[in-house]
Design goal:
Elements lengths: L2 E10 L3 H10 L1 H8 L3 E8 L8 E6 L7 E10 L4 E9 L6 E12 L5 E11 L7 H24 L6
Antiparallel strand pairs: 1-7, 2-3, 3-4, 4-5, 5-6, 6-7
Helix pairs in contact: 1-2, 1-3
């Protein structure tokens, strides 16, 4: 089993606190409003968005994927750090065992934040990913971050 990794570092005009709430701690409420693929997001295991909980994203009909389950591994709401793992769903296909994510938001002097994310794709034995498949994964992550920023910009009262 091999691991393919990639990282992003993005600048946002949204504060780390608001971005973290919308993207992580209040994701069941807000993610369907900024992730255009998500029909719903729900807590399916655990009590609240805490370590060990499992959050399921259900995708709109007609998309190639039906759902994805993420387990929250670690969360630090003071320093805006979260580690979580995609543990189940047709996104994994026949090539991926799981996908691990680490997200860190840092406040910036202008009132916005810097979004630092790392993704580890854990490949099944003998599996390989093409550059196109890796790029598609990166594009999805970037679209979620930009969608969240657009949503929060258009709704300044949300997560304030």
């Amino acid at each position: 089993m091999g691991i393919k990794s990639f990282s992003h570092e993005l600048k946002s005009k949204i504060s780390a606190s608001r971005f973290f709430k919308a993207l992580i701690t209040e994701s069941p409420e807000h993610a369907p409003k900024f992730n255009k693929s998500a029909k719903s997001v729900e807590l399916v295991e655990g009590h609240g968005v805490t370590p060990g909980c499992v959050i399921q994203t259900n995708f709109h009909d007609g998309l190639p994927f039906k759902y994805a389950k993420h387990r929250l591994d670690e969360i630090d709401t003071v320093n805006y750090v979260c580690k979580y793992t995609l543990i189940e769903g047709d996104i994994l296909g026949d090539k991926l065992e799981k996908i691990s994510y680490e997200l860190k938001l840092e406040e910036s002097a202008d009132g916005g934040c810097v979004i630092k994310s790392k993704t580890d794709l854990h490949l099944k034995a003998g599996a390989e990913l093409t550059d196109e498949e890796i790029k598609a994964g990166k594009d999805v992550a970037l679209s979620i971050f930009s969608g969240c920023e657009e949503y929060l910009t258009a709704n300044p009262h949300v997560c304030a």
